[in-house]
Write a structure and sequence with these properties.
By secondary structure, the chain is of the alpha+beta class. The protein has two helices and four strands.
Amino acid sequence: MDAERLPFILNFFHQLDVEIRHYKIGPKNIYNMDETGFQLGQGKTQRVISKVRNSTRPLPTGGIAETVTAVECIAADGWLMPPMIIFAGTVHLESWFRDQPDLPDDYIIATTDSGWNNEVSAYFYPYYFA
């Protein structure tokens, strides 16, 4: 709850500014990294309209869907790390992604057993931070 209160937010950024100045941290060494998951086939927000007598009963919304994880990173100086897209599985075939006009060549496509970001990012990303 405190993260949504303006005095706490201002205090956090004031303390961050003090640390940045004290340690002389430049913009190229300040990163924002985000990991998000989404379900394949779920492109829009769903709304369920139903007449339910017992409002505590769960409503099905189409079953279990495969999830995909996307990892993105940007530095304060504007440098962008190519995104990593992680699918659940043990292997992927290059032919699945070749000739996709909307998929840039520098995107990293990876797999993990769960489809979540775990040891895979340490394998693919270390050369960006060397």
